[in-house]
Amino acid sequence: MANNKNLSRREFMKLGGLTMAGFGFNVWDRGIGQSVHRDESPEGDHRMARVAHLVPINVRAQPNLNSALVGTLKEDSVVPWLREVIGYHPHQICQRWVETTLGYVWSPFFQPVYNKPNQPVVALKETSLGQGMWVEVTVPYVDMRLENPQPFAPSTKHRIETGQYPRLYYSQVVWVDQINVDSEGQTWYRINERYSYGDVFWGPAEAFRLIEEDEVTPIALGVENKRVDVNLARQSLSCYENDREVYYCRVSTGAFGEDTETPPGNNSFIFRKMISMHMSGGTSGGGWDLPGVGYTSLFRQGGIAIHSTFWHNNFGERTSAGCVNVRPEDAKWIFRWSTPVVGYDPGDSTVTDFSGTNIRVLED
Known about the structure:
Elements: H1 9-14, E1 26-27, E2 44-51, E3 57-60, E4 69-73, E5 78-80, E6 83-86, E7 96-99, E8 104-106, E9 110-115, E10 125-127, E11 130-137, E12 141-143, E13 145-146, H2 154-161, E14 167-169, E15 173-181, E16 187-192, E17 200-204, E18 208-210, E19 226-231, E20 236-241, E21 244-250, E22 265-269, E23 272-281, E24 288-300, E25 304-308, E26 324-326, H3 328-337, E27 348-350, E28 358-362
């Protein structure tokens, strides 16, 4: 259910010790984002490209690394994605480039996104975890307000210390456990991520789409002898039913290196699946911290999993820290098709008897 109390906007901001002058909200569709070329980002099924790279990326006159430089784009800039073409990038497997209204950009630097704002939900679901709902970000990005006085997660600390807002990106999946409508009629969702560092956020409701229960129901439930083959050499993933391939996608496995390569082997099984997971690891100086990673299927100890990816588009090339990165739509299909079965409530399942789907990581 929605909050029983409507707060003024100033009262709402002060819940976390922040004033309106000291903090801003940013939801893409309300036109107060910091991204460029907002006037060219219509709502609906118009694909756009978000810069998913920490340092500015180059825009070329042609889809060729040797072509003239016509500009640069900063992290989280959003531009129209006109089409994808084959070009030239030496020493890289990926030769795909994206044509934009500004020029051409090497495809791995862009996250494909859409701008699909939503009507706010007015009532939460009753679940075994209490009232709540799973939601997915459906705008290029959304800035949020931190409820707790001090940040806990490394990524949240970094953004606040560098004067940036905590931010979620297109396709991320998170848990909402409260709804508030302020005195100006704006609806806010409280983002309370499970298995996280403990940070709690408020974000504008328009940025999030309710995930319905039938979206995560299992598919091909009665089929036996399922398995998943991940081919390291080809950077591909295939799902099989009785040795018949039923699904195929490109992947990005662990980068070359002792600490990052995805370990090969034929005898792994999915032992835990979560609709959303907060992932982090590495050293404090060179690690990663990724909230809201959707449709995660863990199959080896140490956190090795097949999961959704929003921070790069380099599928077909070894990029990850050990996991099998796939597109959000691929992660969701694999999640629903494989075992163990996971329901909307609680959105998390663990088995210890090796009954989950067999994962084979092949070197060729």
